[in-house]
Write a structure and sequence with these properties.
With 140 residues, the chain is an alpha/beta fold. The protein has one domain (2-139): HUPs (Rossmann fold). The chain is built from 6 helices and 5 strands; from the N terminus they run E-H-E-H-H-E-H-E-H-H-E. Strands 3-2-1-4-5 form a 5-stranded parallel beta sheet, with helices on both faces. Strand 1, helix 1 and strand 2 form a beta-alpha-beta unit. Helix 4 runs parallel beside helix 6. The two termini are 22 Å apart. InterPro entries: Rossmann-like_a/b/a_fold (IPR014729), Universal_stress_UspA (IPR006015), UspA (IPR006016). This is Universal stress protein. Pfam families: Usp. Residues 2-140 form the UspA domain.
């Protein structure tokens, strides 16, 4: 099974990884995991003043800060893990990655905002659910 793990380095990501790690009966170690992080894009106005190579390096650095500890945890757990990164709107890119790379399941940490909070602030989780045809397992 191909399992996509959207990660952002937050406590919700850490909880999601710990949950999977302590509940081997849920998913186990026999699957192929992809840790996927999305870095917020700089505004186009700011980005136009930067050399494209510098901007690419910035996005890679930001992504690597999130992905390094996830890779280390996956290695401790014995998971087959690869990583992927993008920059832009997180929900859209997560759903797109899942579709384009034939992922069987998305497992992601959820913040657990109230319904009112989600209406006002929006939510990456809600955005993924709205755009995705792949099953999504939310860990709170």
């Amino acid at each position: 099974m191909q399992i996509l793990l959207p990660v952002d380095g937050s406590e919700y990501t850490k909880r999601m990884l710990a949950y999977i790690g302590t509940h081997h009966d849920l998913l186990g170690t026999e699957h192929d995991y992809t840790a996927f992080t999305v870095v917020h894009s700089l505004s186009p106005h700011a980005a136009r003043f930067l050399d494209p190579a510098v901007l690419a390096d910035y996005y890679a650095e930001q992504a690597d800060e999130v992905l390094r500890p996830v890779q280390a945890y996956a290695a401790e757990q014995g998971w087959r893990m690869k990583v992927a990164r993008a920059h832009g709107p997180a929900a859209k890119l997560i759903a797109l990655y899942a579709q384009e790379h034939a992922q069987d399941l998305i497992v992601m940490g959820a913040h657990g905002h109230s319904a009112l909070g989600n209406m006002v602030m929006g939510s990456t989780t809600n955005g993924v659910l709205a755009r995705c045809k792949v099953p999504v397992l939310l860990i709170r």
